[in-house]
Design the sequence.
């Protein structure tokens, strides 16, 4: 061996940058310990303890969900999901990969130190990861809520250095991991802003800076008083008419006679009635969600009075499709869905349980309830062939992530009817339960899906129930379904972020 060859040199050289980084980390920790943080002695240690086991973030998520705004609820769920992924990664990989000892507490004033010191390894900081993951997850869904949560998350991360339980690099690494977890969750489950389709085709609509010319008919039974008052504050010259459900039709007809823009606040049935009136009188429609599900408004991109007011003030509107059915002498409109068979009963059962146990289990319970009731398949002729069907679902536009729980639409002007069926058979339990469990209906031989712009059904028995946008009517004989492309002008903020 050559006397000039040192086999330890590469290892020593590799360790030198790491030693320098660790030394710098230690000096930063000592500097933070010696620095007097005004007003922090009472706040940061308590804040640090409150974040143990994610308690602070779960409480924050609950408070956000209690605000009853869809964006806040989605942001809360995304924040908790991001936190969960970050915590799982920290506990399974992070803490076990780098066995770093906790800082020595000698430089840290006693008043700052936690009463119970952590016993796990120091790198990376789990508290910082959870704080960053929750804040980033919330911000990716709602920048406004993210801005509110970010200072608290930063304070929790800083508290881990302040109380002496982590080096600064532990906190930085944990925060980076938390942000990465939030972006991974977004990749797996895109935000609504990512899924929202193009704001097309844009339409010309009156810009009403103070709301002058807007007449809003609100269904009092929907519990819309708070939203209507907020809209009135945002558009002080708008006219608001609150009425009982049985008065909706009359009030809409009165409103169209004096309105430049017809507004409506209520559930899907109320919005359907307003859309019919707006189409008859060629008026633009302003929809303020006020019901339980609000499928049309939410898919459109209007979730609260602030978004609607911004669109009305700026004259921001789009053209959207409508669906129409003709059954004998009756003609009806649907903005969301139309269904035949047992689907209405499945939806009622699902909606009764979904807020307690979630949509997917509630769909299964709905299927079981239909089976216990001994229902029979619907007999219908399609294309000259008679077929038994357990349910037939028709969406005004393509629905995504379909099962017994409808998903959502990203384009309300796609020109298509989304037709989904569950075939009838002698084994109803297998068919209906597979429909409840399978997710998208195209993934099972029991299901079929097709997108058309017109559908003709014949051979329906007298009294067959047909449900559309929360309303139910009886049909018989022949039913024709067709698409009305870009039939309706509806206000929608072209920028729905925030």
Sequence:
């Amino acid at each position: 061996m050559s006397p000039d060859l040192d086999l330890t040199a590469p290892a020593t050289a590799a360790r030198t940058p790491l030693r320098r980084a660790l030394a710098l980390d230690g000096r930063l920790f000592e500097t933070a310990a010696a620095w007097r943080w005004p007003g922090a002695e009472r706040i940061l240690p308590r804040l640090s303890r409150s974040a143990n086991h994610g308690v602070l973030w779960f409480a924050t998520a609950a408070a956000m969900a209690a605000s009853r705004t869809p964006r806040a609820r989605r942001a809360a769920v995304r924040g908790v999901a991001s936190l969960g992924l970050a915590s799982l990664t920290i506990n399974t990989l992070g803490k076990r990969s780098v066995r770093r000892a906790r800082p020595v507490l000698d430089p840290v004033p006693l008043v700052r130190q936690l009463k119970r010191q952590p016993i796990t390894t120091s790198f990376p900081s789990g508290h910082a990861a959870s704080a960053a993951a929750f804040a980033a997850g919330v911000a990716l869904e709602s920048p406004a809520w993210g801005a509110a949560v970010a200072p608290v998350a930063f304070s929790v991360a800083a508290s881990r250095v302040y109380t002496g339980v982590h080096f600064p690099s532990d906190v930085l690494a944990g925060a980076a991991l938390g942000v990465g977890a939030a972006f991974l969750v977004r990749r797996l489950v895109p935000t609504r802003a990512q899924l929202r389709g193009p704001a097309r085709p844009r339409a010309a609509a009156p810009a009403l800076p103070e709301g002058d010319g807007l007449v809003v008919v609100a269904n009092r039974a929907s519990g819309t008083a708070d939203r209507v008052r907020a809209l009135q504050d945002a558009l002080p010259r708008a006219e608001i008419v609150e009425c009982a459900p049985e008065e909706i039709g009359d009030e809409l007809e009165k409103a169209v006679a004096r309105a430049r823009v017809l507004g409506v606040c209520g559930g899907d049935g109320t919005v359907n009635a307003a859309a019919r009136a707006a189409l008859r009188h060629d008026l633009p429609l302003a929809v303020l969600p006020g019901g339980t599900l609000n499928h049309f408004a939410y898919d459109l991109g209007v979730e609260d009075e602030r978004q609607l007011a911004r669109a009305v003030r700026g004259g921001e509107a789009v053209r959207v499709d409508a669906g129409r059915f003709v059954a004998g002498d009756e003609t009806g409109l649907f903005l969301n869905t139309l269904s035949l068979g047992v689907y209405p009963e499945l939806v009622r059962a699902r909606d009764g349980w979904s807020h307690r146990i979630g949509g997917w289990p509630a769909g299964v319970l709905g299927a079981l309830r239909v089976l216990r009731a001994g229902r029979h398949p619907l007999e219908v002729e399609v294309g000259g062939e008679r077929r038994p069907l357990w349910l037939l679902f028709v969406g005004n536009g393509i629905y995504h992530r379909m099962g017994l729980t409808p998903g959502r639409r990203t384009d309300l002007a796609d020109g298509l009817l989304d037709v989904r069926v569950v075939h009838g058979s002698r084994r109803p339990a297998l068919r209906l339960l597979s429909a409840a469990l399978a997710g998208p209906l195209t993934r099972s031989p029991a299901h079929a899906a097709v997108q058309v712009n017109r559908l003709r059904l014949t051979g329906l028995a007298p009294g067959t129930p047909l449900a559309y946008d929360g309303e139910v009517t009886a049909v018989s004989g022949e039913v024709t379904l067709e698409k009305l492309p870009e039939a309706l002008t509806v206000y929608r903020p072209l920028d729905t972020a925030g």
Observations:
- Residues 1-14, 402-406, 438-443 have pLDDT under 50 and may be disordered.
- The first helix runs from residue 9 to 34.
